[in-house]
Amino acid sequence: MNKLYDLIVVGGGPGGITAGIYAKRAGLDVVIIERNVPGGAITTTSEVENYTGITKIGGIELATKMFEHASSLSIPFIWDEVKKIIPDGEEKVVECYQETYKAKAVIIAVGASVRKLNIDKERQLIGKGVSYCATCDGSLYKDKIVAIVGGGNTALEDCLYLSNIAKKVYLIHRREEFRGQNILVNQLKEKSNVQLILNSVVSDINGDNKIESIVVENKITKVKQEIKIDGLFICIGRGPDTEMIDGNININSSGYIITDENMKTNYDGIYAIGDIRNSPLKQILCACSDGAIASTKAFEYIKTKNK
Ligand code: NAP
Q: Does the C-beta of 48 come closer than 6 Å to ligand 1?
């Protein structure tokens, strides 16, 4: 069993890194556990235009800056995936695939995972034309034909991004109105290579070793059309991934961890921040704010325990 940290932050996205920075500056022995790359979901965002003080920045660039900020304070990262968090007791246990760690307090900052359409061939063709990340895979589709599914900010931003790379971009949304911001919708309407297909869903994906076409069904007319494409980007939001808390920590009916205004869960010393919690707004700024609050409250909790 490893040493006892003051604080383990699970997840190295904007919220987790902010929590780490506040903890380190408060003098806590903190570590961040991340299973993938630092930055979380922003690494799959092409441009961020609503982070106060920065007019426009690439998602990967912002993630890199955040990681550099953490590194400048010598905040350690452990590259491992968390299997289980055991929240009760004075020493919290975080079981990972490679090791098990212990801390006086834990901040859960794991964000949310991409949602799937759950239709035939979707999983089979991941990496063979089906993608959930335009920033990661978009460059593979230079002068090709792609389709995006979704009507939120991610789909709209990814559509704008892909319209600068691909020859033709279809944006397929299940309703008439978009959930994402009007400013993005208006920008898209000015793009000559973007075609909006509204009130429609993707009912089938065709292709064996690579995607060849999709079948799009209009929900009102029930008319189906086959569209030949080279790539399908599914951007239909994210859902909480709370397997690691194993039913111990309270979640709401949508699966998000319930916290109070101090980011505290139903367990003393266990906090949740950012997209994994029942927050009213999933934004980078909000995750950072959550991280600052949780870290400050964890500091107070740990100091009380140390008395
Ligand atoms: P989202 O806002 O939850 O939107 C998901 C979209 O996918 C919705 O339009 C939804 O349709 C559609 N959808 C969901 N399930 C579907 C299904 N099974 N089949 C077809 N369509 C489906 O997700 P998001 O766009 O990933 O954004 C997540 C959060 O991050 C949001 O709060 C967003 O504002 C934020 N975000 C912010 C920025 C930014 O500010 N720069 C950038 C990206 C994301 P309905 O609308 O009909 O429900």
A: yes
